[in-house]
Amino acid sequence: MTLFDLLGYHIKANPKYGSEKKGQPTTYYLSAAPEPIRVNCEYFYVDVVLSPDPNVFHHTNALAGLNEGGVFIIQSERTAPEKVWEDIPPAFQKIIADKKIKLFALDGFKIAREEATDSDLQLRMQGIAFQGAFFKASNVMQQAGLDEPRLLDAIRSQLQHKFGSKGARVVEDNMRVVKRGFDELIPVQPGAIGAGRAATQLRRSAGCAGHGQAVAREQSADERHPPILGADRQLRPWNGQRQHHRSLHRARRDARRLSPFSRHDADPLPASAVGP
């Protein structure tokens, strides 16, 4: 509605979702144009994609249909741009680089958590932070000849109209979230393709090496104990002595139970009863 209030743009929004349970990924499309919008369907080509889901690349192609030179804003708790880039899978890193997509990151979760005075409003206010990020990253302000003060005044007027009945506190909470979304947006420059995977593999290799060293140390400690000679005449380590004796005891007990001449059974049959 802010685009309508500022520029008189026509707005049309379309959600896309099936019969999934609550909490499943959902796609929303929004069009803004100076002329009436007669298309009412799913969009294949868009200029801006907002993703409040930090794991979006693990379950969908969020870049599908994003025009060359478009804007992509993703939720991320990372404060270093190179770390944001490393979190993106290499296949999508290549798409971003090839299509010259403008990549941005915003921690909308943190902003909403810190600014919402009511815990019930935190989830709802995450999207408000992305509204501020949208105006900062897109070229709407430049095309309309707007500056930041005029933009924020229009947003405040919209919030007052929508939430004024809930009190000034709710309006100011939302306004602070929008302002921080505008100010705290992080531009991310594309780096080397596969940089994140290489770093992850390096960390995993280091972890495996550390685990191997720990196992080696445990084995060395066991070898310091003198071996014993078990009942089956095989050498066994000291720390396995008790378990070995228990296994041997169970085997002998089972053997006695299965024997027809066990002391727990009746006396054996006489030879005459068995037959020649």
Describe the model.
It is a single chain. α2 (about 80-85) crosses α9. This protein has helices spanning about 1-5, 80-85, 90-100, 110-115, 120-135, 140-145, 150-165, 170-185, 195-225, 240-260, 270-275; strands at about 10-15, 25-35, 45-50, 65-75, 100-105, 185-190, 230, 235. The protein has about 280 residues and is of the alpha/beta class. The strands form three sheets. Strands 3-4-5-6 form a four-stranded mixed β-sheet, with helices on both faces. It has a two-stranded antiparallel ribbon with strand order 1-2. It is extended, with a radius of gyration of 34 Å.
Radius of gyration: 34 Å
**Total strand segments:** 8
Shape: extended
Q: Which regions have little confidence, pLDDT < 50, spanning 5+ residues?
A: 208-240, 261-276
Summarize the structure.
With 276 residues, this protein is an alpha/beta fold. Helices cover 49% and strands 15% of the residues. Strand 7 and strand 8 (235-236) form a beta hairpin.
Please describe the structure with a list of short key phrases separated by commas or semicolons.
disordered C terminus; extended; 276 residues; 11 helices
Which secondary structure elements does this structure contain, and how are they paired or packed?
Layout: H1 2-7, E1 10-16, E2 27-33, E3 46-51, E4 66-75, H2 81-87, H3 90-98, E5 102-106, H4 108-115, H5 122-137, H6 140-144, H7 148-163, H8 168-183, E6 186-188, H9 195-223, E7 228-229, E8 235-236, H10 241-258, H11 271-274
Parallel strand pairs: 3-4, 4-5
Antiparallel strand pairs: 1-2, 5-6, 7-8
